[in-house]
Amino acid sequence: MNNRKLTKIFIANRGEIAYRIIRTASRLGISTVLPVVPEEKDTLPARAADEIHVLENSILDETYLNGKVMIELALKYGADAIHPGYGFLSENAEFARLAENAGLIWIGPPPDAMALMGNKLSARKVAQKAGIPVPKGISGTKQEILKNHDSLRFPLLIKATAGGGGKGMKIAHNSEQLETMLDDAAREAKNYFGDQTIYVEEYIDNPRHIEVQIFGDQYGNVVHLFERECSIQRRFQKIVEESPSAFVDDNLRDKLSSQAVKLAQQINYCNAGTVEFLVDSNKQHYFLEMNTRLQVEHPVTEAITGIDLVEEQIKTAMGLPLSFIQEDVKAHGHAIEARIYAEDALNNFRPSPGKINFVKWPSPQMARTDSFFDSSVEIPSFFDPLLAKITVWGFNRKEAIEKLSLSLEQTSVIGITTGLPWLRKLTKTEAFVTGNTTTHFTTTYQDLLHKAIQPNGLKKTELLLAAFAVWIIHYRNENNDNNIWNKLGHKRWGNNFEVTLAHKTYTVKIKDGVYPHSLKWCLDNNIMDDIHNITFSSHNLRFYFREQWAQLTWYYTHRNELLLEVDGHTYRLFPGFRLNNITNSNQKNTEKSNIIKAPIPGKISKILVKKGELVNESSPLMILEAMKMENTLQAKARGMVKEVRISEGEQVKAGQILAEIDDKT
User: Fold this and answer.
1) Cis before 110 (ω within 30)
2) Which of 41, 290, 292, 324 has the fewest CB atoms inside 10 Å of its own CB, making it the most exposed?
3) Of 234, 293, 339, 542, which one is the catalytic site residue?
4) pLDDT (0 to 100) of residue 347
5) Record keywords: NAD included (predicted)?
6) pLDDT grade, residue 191 (50/70/90)?
7) This prediction's pTM
8) What are the chain's domains?
């Protein structure tokens, strides 16, 4: 086969994956073109790309999900190739064909292979031919599935026939749930993939999610790059990935790897791909799906093999053979990746768009950080909530976990709620430390992790005020300019001061500690407590208090506002030492129970009630789509729907009134 020259790549994507592709392309001497929405003109990928095209708006159907627009832009800027990244159109075979028909190099697998494996039904047939067991299942219209599902045993896993990434997936435990969820799954599938065909199969209870990274070239060579375990998930989307799996032994590893390679060979697969499996407690494995693209979690494989997967993607797309054979691929050490999402773990992982004022990533010597920003940025509601991926490598799993834990402690995001506190506590759970994780991890340990990231009552208040007290002492000693204290209304420099939090004023007292780098602290004339091992670095302090490590990060905005982040929550400091939590969406709700407001900005994808309808407490009222997730808004009390103020498809703002319930009915 002839090699094709490649000098400029058009990246039909955004965010951290766009920046990841740009870095490798630049190292290879290949220029890049990036389409960006107006809100992301100053992000890392936009600054790093050789050329950018500012899109007219942020409507996905008119931008990243519009293949015709993407190809027209690639041709306009003289690109030789298109790299689709992951998500959006990355697994759309028709988009790949359009690109190739336009004379562009498609940096991905052949369109025919994409179409074959992108369809759940044909993918199952390919897997069976490769000798991979598959769960029993059926497909068809809603009516056909409801008519024929008696041949299957509950629970049933509902999937979108096209696409992946957990979109459209539901678990039905009975016929009633199945009927409702088929509609929901079809709607999500149509929204995300343009195809509402649904497939239903028997659900493998409490499995491990294991995937094998494979790579092929145009000369028939296919190799595997070992497995990744991705069992820790929420909403069928991965949160933590690692390699090697603590669960997979050599026998199972050889079986999964050889079957993944055989599957790829029989469809003449080329470029990067991932064959995914579910493995039960008896180590019986079943085919799940094949992702015909680069995975979000590819840095895990890069960390243990030393192979740049994006570089191999580019070179194989140019017609070059793989730069390695199977015997060359060695796994060294252990790697773990944690995804940081803009979401609230205390509210069913609800998306959390908004303004990030300050960010601090872990030391590059400790971890690899893949993100798309390094300073203040607005996180919009119309994209996936992924903010960053933190990947660590250790000589063994124990060392990797220790590095991950420390890296997450070093990370701070000020301004919005993120999954950071949840991830920090996750690394300390016995199940994670021992490798005893399944796809039920987040539900099994939900209460434990929720309690850990939001201690109740005074304990949480004491942690915050202790951190604030240490910060005050440090700032007072390190700065001669007292203007900040004048602005904040702090009138004297004694060791007693008052702080107002949640409309309550506390008196804090501080004394010198017995040991270096320590203080004695008490609240409202209670017993003195010790604060030990106080250390400071840029924007950050860390200390030991009440048998736990704690930290505070601070940042001054361009308007001279002081923001403090403690345990995943951001507080704004006002004059008179008033602290206001600007991220805590779990604080007591003082809204009237009959008023339904949008908790976050987004689009109303479906209205489930109408005026005059009687609803009960927790009855679903409407579905709000934000950051590629569906969020069901529920009634707060029993009553009659008095008014619905919005319509389906309408974009709404956070705090906007959506409906009113007459709770006196």
Assistant:
1) no
2) 41
3) 293
4) 83
5) no
6) low
7) 0.89
8) 8-107 (3.40.50.20), 136-202 (3.30.1490.20), 208-453 (3.30.470.20), 458-581 (3.30.700), 595-662 (2.40.50.100)
